[in-house]
Amino acid sequence: MFTNAIVRRPGSNFAEGLTTVDFGVPEYATVLEQWEVYCAALENCGLILTRLDADLRHPDSTFVEDTAVVTPHGAMLTRPGAASRMGEVEAIAPAVRGFYPEAAQIGAPGTLDGGDICEAGRHFFLGLSHRTNEEGARQLAVHLAREGYTSSCVDVRGMTSILHLKSGISYVGPGPAGEETLVVMEEMADWPEFAAYDLLRVSPEESYAANCVRVNDRVLVAAGHPRMTEELARRGYDPLVLEMSEFRKMDGGLSCLSLRF
Length: 261
Fold this sequence. Notes:
- The chain is an alpha/beta fold.
- The chain is 21% helix and 23% strand.
- It contains five helices and 15 strands.
- The strands form five sheets. The chain has a three-stranded mixed beta sheet, sandwiched between helices.
- A hairpin with a 2-residue loop joins β12 and β13.
């Protein structure tokens, strides 16, 4: 059960951030509207929010998930793989250390984005991507092992359809019958790394919805993906549909916008 989340308001220069897709330029008024609805959804799920002001030095800084990996036992500040984002960690560190005074930090030459890290119960999948390298994953694995977690690496560097591991998989289990469930985009569904889990396979047409978020008794899911939403409900989950169109334009998803603990 989560009780807290850290979020950061999108800045007026949000559209100047990094993106690998061509879905158009975000409309700032709509960005703010969607962010406020997202924050309200977290509060409706029972979370107390720490709302940080916009950071105009870093247009991508509303994607706070990339700056830290948090568990019930501790936190590790990251070292983003994009040079323009490294300052985001220093900016958010006081908020993270307000909850985790002994937070560790990834050191050079390691790089790691939180969007590459998928917690699945007592196990963590560590994505190797163009933002997270082997050394960053190794340092996090050592940190997690001290906390009693296991971990394994999943290499997504050969994929062109996703930026981070969690663009393609999400952990939403255990389900009503106790099954440990991973939501997985079809392109990754047959990978041996995920064979031990009950899989909810997401069709190529709805692959963006693979980035969903279990928040206590609800599962946040992006609007516009009815088959995915219906399948979650059929399996006994309680979907909460949120519009994410403007964040998708900047490679963002539902998990990116908060640190939940």
